[in-house]
Every structure is written in structure tokens, then in C-alpha cells.
């Protein structure tokens, strides 16, 4: 043996047969020696170190180990040059020392998730950048494929509408621009999982994951950026759901056959549970907020105007200074003497305004108050799908609406959605970071099966709620009660 092989880390000679003395710092040196031969270029460690990290540590880079490797005996090459510098840096040593002091428990993992370190290490920035790129690629690919198929299907309608508005690109941009926002809301959990699996599989494929694990970095530490990215996407999805989608829900609700919202569609009768008035009509126009040929069936308490009130059209009017929310009936034909009839009240509140003693009404007009908005009147499902949570809560407390189980279910689902997103990512991460070695395609296949099972479970409980088999609150939270323990069990190897 050479003299260097029989010297301890303090430079003292050691007799043959006597064990070398090591400590924590020397173990870290061992990891640097282990990863050193994996470098593609062994002679320029400091030259390839990122400039910001050099400036941060200053002269401390003089203390870095040379990480020598034999050019004649290389093992595996890493795809990223910074990874070897990260492992040999002071930043990694500090984080590794902190991780070594922690006990591998669920509580410590949760504390590390939300508190963690006051900085992002190189590996964090690397994984977040890779996941962000994968997220954008998958999102654009799926949305582009979906929109291209839809565009070819409805190309004739787009061309006809473009002749009226003056530009096909403008029509396509506005139509699919709004749907891009709704597409993100529908697919954000799947996109977060897919991008996270891509980033971690990239590490596995290029042997970077092996090097990180060999250097003493825990699986939890590697998965931490992916989990933080998922939480960040969930926060964006919440803001999009509460503020953006409610403001554009009218545009999203229009299909390619009704881009301007002026197409006449058949109208189904709707009941006002507070006034007990049955609204009937021939058709409606969404853009004009109007009902064509309305015929209102009056309850016994409001039968002074006759059994029904017929008009040429009815226009939805929101709450104003002169009147509450309701419908303005024009060209009333039944009863014929509507202008001479007095207003009708129900429970000390005026329900039907007539031209008599109502100066803002014109002849042959009357105003019927109703808490059923135009979206709710025409039976559109978009009002509950794209309304804010506060709007849904107001709809539940609205005595004019019979919301059933769908709206309370959707409210509870809004609150449970971020926790379900986190459970989904915790179910997927062990497929790549688990102790079992799997190929990339196998991991992707298992990830797809996990996602399908996840959403089938969620949709199954929701279907039981809409069928009035389960309560809305229990059906919304039941998927979390099933998936959260399963996700914790699957993620257990990451704490160890």
C-alpha cells in the first residue's frame, strides 16, 4: 500500500492492520469520493460550479474535497454537472447534517414539509425547474390535442361566425382562450402528478437518483420539491376557481354552435319555490337574458291576475334601486287589463308589479320578482360548475331554488380538493422513489392506473350523493378518508 492509503484524515500514519479513524466529516468525504468518479470531467470541479454558489460560499470552496476519480475506471456519467458539486458543497453538508439529526417519523416529515430549510438547495431548484418544464409541456400537449380535434369538428361554425365578426384567428383565440382556463381547472391535479413523475423519472433514467441516494440524501428530501410544487399548483387552481372562472362563465357556457349567444334554444319549465310561480316558455336567448313567449302559472295566493300571465318576452333584471331581482314581462296579452290591476303582495312583499302606481313600468308591462337567476332559470349546469364558493353557499340559502344534493356536494368538494391533490401526489411519488426498482414505462403505467382508480373512487362517491344514497358532505369527504391513509402508507418509505 502507498503511504496515502495508510494515513488517516488528520495526516497521521497508521500501522498495517490498525483501523482508520473516521468521524462525521470524514463520512461526508467518503460520499464525495463515491460520487466523484461519476463526473464526466474530473479535473474542473470548481470551474463548473455555478457562479452564484461560488459567490455565496466564497473561499469555503477551498475546503471542498477534490473528489478525485480515475479517468481510466469511470463508472456512470451524470447528465447534470452541478449534481456532483451539490453533493460536495457546504450547502449539502448542512442539509445532510440536519436530516441526520431527525427521526424518520410522520411528524418529522410533516414538519420538514412545511418548515424545512430557510433556503432552496441546488437539487430543489433543479427539480422544480424540471417539473415546471414538464408541467408546461404536458399541459400544452394535452390542451393542444384536445383543441385541435375540437377545432376540426366545429370548423364550419367558426368560419361562419368569422364572416360576421371579421377574423377566424380572433374567433379561435377567444373561444379556446376561455376554455384553456377551464381546462387547467379540470386537469391541474393530473398535470401536477404527471410533471412530478416526469421529473423524478428523469433523475432515475440518468442515474442521478442513484447518486443522490448513495450520497446520503433521503427519498423524502428528493420528493420535497415535488410536493411543494403540487401545493403551489393547488393554490393557483383555487384562485382560478374562485375569481377567474366566475367572471367568464358566460363565455365558457357557449358552444361552437352558439358563439354569440343569440341562438334560440328550447326552454324547460322552472319552479320558483318561494313565490310558487311556475315559469314556462317557448325558448330563450342567452346573450339577451330573455325568455320568448313566457307563460307564468300563478299559485292560488296570486290568482287575482288570473290563472296565468302570458307575454311576448321576459327579460331578466338584477336587483336595482326601484325593484329586486326578477323578470320584466313585455307586451302582456293575458290578462288583457294588466295596466288597471293593482300590484300583488305575498308575505308583505310585492311579488308582481303592474303599471298602476309603478311609474318605471310602461303600458302592457309587469315585473315579477324571483330569486331564480337567468342561468338557473334555463337549467344551465355551468352556474354551479363555475360559480365561486360564496356564490354556491348563497344558492343553498336561497329559498327560491331547489338545489338538491349537487350544490352542497360541490361546496364540500371545493374544500377537500387541495387535500385530495396532495394525496394523489403522495400516491404517485413512491412509484418512482420507492425501494423497488422499476422501469420508466412501468412507473408511468402504474401512475396511470393509480390516477384512474383515484378518480373513479371520487366520482363513485359523488354519484352516490347525487342519487341521494349518501349525504353530500359525507360523499365529498369520503374519498379523502379512503385515499389519505393509503397515501400515508405508500409514502412511508420516504420517511425512512
Describe, in plain words, how this protein is organized in 3D:
With 496 residues, this protein is an alpha+beta fold. The protein folds into three domains: 81 residues, no CATH class; 227 residues, no CATH class; 110 residues, no CATH class. The chain has 19 helices and twelve strands. The chain has an eight-stranded antiparallel sheet with strand order 1-4-5-8-9-12-11-10, with no helix packed on it. α9 packs parallel to α15. The chain is elongated.
Number of domains: 3
Distance linking N and C termini: 38 Å
Strand residues, percent: 5-15%
Low-confidence stretches: 1-10, 19-82, 90-111, 113-119
Helix content: 40-55%
Question: Mind summarizing the main beta sheet?
Answer: 8 strands, antiparallel
Shape: elongated
State the secondary-structure class: alpha+beta
Mean pLDDT over the residues: 79
Widest beta sheet: strand line-up: 1-4-5-8-9-12-11-10
Total count of helical runs of at least 4 residues: 19
The number of E-state strands comes to: 12
Radius of gyration: 33 Å
Amino acid at each position: 500500500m502507498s503511504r496515502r492509503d495508510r494515513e488517516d484524515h488528520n495526516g497521521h500514519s497508521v500501522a498495517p492492520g490498525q483501523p482508520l479513524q473516521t468521524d462525521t466529516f470524514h463520512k461526508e468525504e467518503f460520499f464525495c469520493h463515491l460520487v466523484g468518479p461519476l463526473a464526466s470531467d474530473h479535473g474542473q470541479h470548481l470551474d463548473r460550479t455555478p457562479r452564484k454558489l461560488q459567490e455565496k460560499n466564497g473561499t469555503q470552496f477551498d475546503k471542498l474535497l477534490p473528489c478525485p476519480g480515475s479517468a481510466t475506471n469511470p463508472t456512470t456519467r451524470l447528465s447534470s454537472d452541478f449534481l456532483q458539486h451539490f453533493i460536495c458543497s457546504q450547502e449539502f453538508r448542512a442539509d445532510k447534517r440536519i436530516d441526520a439529526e431527525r427521526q424518520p417519523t410522520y411528524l418529522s416529515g410533516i414538519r420538514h414539509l412545511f418548515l424545512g430549510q430557510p433556503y432552496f438547495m441546488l437539487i430543489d431548484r433543479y427539480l422544480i425547474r424540471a417539473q415546471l418544464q414538464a408541467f408546461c409541456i404536458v399541459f400544452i400537449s394535452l390542451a393542444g390535442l384536445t383543441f385541435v380535434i375540437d377545432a376540426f369538428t366545429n370548423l364550419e361554425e367558426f368560419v361562419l361566425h368569422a364572416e360576421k365578426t371579421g377574423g377566424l384567428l380572433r374567433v379561435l383565440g377567444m373561444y379556446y382562450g376561455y376554455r384553456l382556463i377551464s381546462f387547467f381547472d379540470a386537469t391541474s391535479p393530473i398535470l401536477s402528478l404527471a410533471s412530478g413523475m416526469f421529473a423524478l423519472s428523469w433523475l432515475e433514467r440518468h442515474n442521478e437518483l442513484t447518486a443522490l441516494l448513495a450520497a446520503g440524501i433521503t427519498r423524502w428530501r428528493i420528493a420535497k420539491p415535488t410536493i411543494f410544487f403540487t401545493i403551489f399548483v393547488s393554490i393557483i387552481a383555487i384562485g382560478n376557481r374562485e375569481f377567474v372562472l366566475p367572471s367568464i362563465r358566460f363565455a365558457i357556457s357557449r358552444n361552437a354552435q352558439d358563439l354569440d349567444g343569440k341562438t334560440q334554444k328550447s326552454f324547460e319549465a322552472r319552479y320558483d319555490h318561494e313565490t310558487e310561480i311556475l315559469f314556462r316558455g317557448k325558448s330563450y336567448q342567452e346573450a339577451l337574458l330573455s325568455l320568448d313567449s313566457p307563460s307564468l302559472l300563478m299559485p292560488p295566493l296570486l290568482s287575482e291576475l288570473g290563472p296565468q300571465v302570458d307575454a311576448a318576452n321576459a327579460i331578466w333584471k338584477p336587483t336595482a334601486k326601484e325593484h329586486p331581482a326578477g323578470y320584466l314581462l313585455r307586451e302582456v296579452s293575458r290578462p288583457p287589463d294588466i295596466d288597471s290591476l293593482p300590484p300583488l303582495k305575498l308575505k308583505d312583499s310585492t311579488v308582481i308589479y303592474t303599471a298602476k302606481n309603478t311609474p318605471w313600468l310602461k303600458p302592457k308591462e309587469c315585473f315579477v320578482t324571483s330569486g331564480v337567476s337567468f342561468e338557473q332559470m334555463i337549467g344551465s349546469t355551468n352556474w354551479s360548475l363555475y360559480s365561486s364558493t360564496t356564490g354556491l353557499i348563497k344558492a343553498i340559502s336561497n329559498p327560491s331554488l331547489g338545489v338538491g344534493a349537487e350544490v352542497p356536494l360541490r361546496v364540500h368538494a371545493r374544500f377537500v380538493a387541495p387535500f385530495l391533490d396532495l394525496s394523489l401526489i403522495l400516491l404517485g411519488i413512491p412509484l418512482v422513489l420507492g425501494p423497488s426498482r422499476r422501469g420508466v414505462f412501468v412507473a408511468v403505467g402504474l401512475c396511470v392506473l393509480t390516477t384512474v382508480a383515484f378518480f373513479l373512487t371520487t366520482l363513485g362517491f359523488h354519484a352516490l350523493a347525487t342519487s341521494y344514497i349518501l349525504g353530500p358532505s359525507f360523499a365529498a369527504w369520503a374519498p379523502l378518508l379512503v385515499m389519505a391513509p393509503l397515501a400515508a402508507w405508500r409514502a412511508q418509505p420516504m420517511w425512512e
